[in-house]
Design goal:
The protein is α+β, with helices and mostly antiparallel strands and 399 residues long. It has 2 helices and 11 strands; from the N terminus they run H-H-E-E-E-E-E-E-E-E-E-E-E. Strands 4-5-11-7-9 form a 5-stranded antiparallel sheet, with no helix packed on it. Strands 3-6-10-8 form a 4-stranded antiparallel sheet, with no helix packed on it.
């Protein structure tokens, strides 16, 4: 009788041991992954067995399809479906190579850091990493203001159109003021070379093919044959005044200080006894308001002049009066007036008084015009001190 009870107890113990082992196996294989499945944010059992395979390590980064957590830290690593709509939201691996190729979130803050698809067309349009090295090389938003400021693809052909960089410096189609219009190193004919407002030494000042009056035409240091050297209207000493191969009448040909190879060929027809000579003949300081400092004497030649002044407070102003004389034998008129700051200061105002486009200057006559430089009102947070070198050029043509 006693032996029978012992056998029954042993049998019950065996059953209990088997049930315990089964429970442990079930917990390890199913219950714990199910709890893990809930922790990472899934609310349904859709795709549960795929997640079990992921948890057990049977699937790899190339085969896991959704909310993949390869290091079991409760944070999604790849193909993250944050809103549980069955569509990848972050760290998407559409190439099935185990790497993020769209909407990559490197710091797990659920905000895209690179290769971002903001319009949900499965194509990158912000901070694009085209060569998959983890660094943005197209449509880069470096200051996180939602706008591209480096290597911008404007026309959607996966090539840089604006603010194109080499290393840390903008080399082509540079937009310095953020208006999506090229200011420096502009490639207007899309051949990969600068042909307008070229900044050769990266100091944000035009060195070659400069369009200082924004009319789409070069009027300073023009490289007409694209050999990287100035051929027309050359300012060799950077004072804002042409001193070599100067085109006075804006016909694209040298009229003054011409090299032998840039002189306009003499026509074969007989020449009439006429002479073109319109130039500044005098300049004086007309008035001064406030605390103004003249850093150098006014320089002038032909119908160009330059001066360097410092203004130290709002309302400071200085006026220069120029005398222009037509010493030639041909009546003239003003075609346009150019004022070119050598540098940049948003708080200085330049004006030409007593003269305007279309004013005539007959042969043997003189006229006077006034150039006024003044400091605008500035915010109190800005130090009211401004220095500017300025060049003025009055373009005369035959009347």
């Amino acid at each position: 009788m006693r032996d029978k009870k012992v056998k029954e107890n042993n049998k019950k113990l065996l059953y209990a041991s088997v049930i315990t082992v089964i429970a442990i196996i079930f917990y390890a294989a199913f219950a714990q992954p199910l709890a893990y499945n809930a922790i990472i944010g899934k609310k349904s059992l859709d795709g549960y067995f795929n997640d079990l395979l992921n948890y057990w390590g049977i699937v790899s980064s190339q085969t896991c399809e959704r909310n993949c957590d390869f290091n079991h830290d409760g944070i999604c690593d790849l193909n993250c479906d944050d809103d549980l709509d069955g569509v990848c939201d972050r760290n998407c691996d559409y190439n099935h190579n185990g790497k993020c190729d769209l909407n990559c979130d490197t710091d797990n803050d659920k905000v895209c850091d690179y290769s971002c698809d903001t319009d949900n067309d499965k194509k990158c349009n912000k901070n694009c990493d085209t060569n998959e090295d983890g660094v943005c090389d197209l449509n880069c938003d470096t200051n996180n203001d939602g706008k591209c400021d480096k290597n911008c693809d404007i026309n959607g052909d996966n090539k840089c159109d604006l603010n194109c960089y080499e290393g840390e410096k903008c080399k082509l189609n540079c937009d310095d003021d953020g208006d999506e219009i090229c200011d420096r190193n502009c490639d207007t004919n899309n051949d990969g070379k600068c042909n307008k407002n070229c900044d050769d030494n990266n100091d944000k000042i035009c060195d070659r093919n400069c369009d200082t009056n924004n009319d789409g035409k070069c009027n300073r240091n023009c490289d007409t044959d694209n050999d990287g050297k100035c051929d027309l209207n050359c300012d060799t000493n950077n004072d804002g005044i042409c001193d070599k191969n100067c085109d006075i009448n804006n016909d694209g040909k040298c009229d003054k200080n011409c090299d032998e190879d840039t002189k306009t060929p003499l026509p074969s027809e007989p020449q009439y006894n006429s002479n073109w000579l319109v130039s500044f003949t005098d300049v004086v300081k007309k008035s001064e308001t406030g605390n103004v400092k003249e850093n150098s004497k006014v320089k002038y030649s032909s119908t160009s002049a330059s001066f360097d002044v410092s203004l130290t407070g709002p309302g400071d102003a200085i006026e220069y009066e120029f005398t222009v004389t037509n010493q030639g034998t041909i009546d003239a008129k003003i075609d346009n007036i150019e004022i070119n700051p050598i540098g940049s200061n948003d708080y200085i105002n330049f004006e030409v008084l007593d003269a305007k486009t279309g004013d005539t200057l007959d042969k043997g006559k003189s006229m006077k015009l006034t150039v006024r430089i003044s400091l605008k009102s500035v915010p109190e947070t800005i130090v009211a001190y401004a220095r500017e070198s300025v060049a003025i050029h009055i373009n005369y043509v035959q009347n």
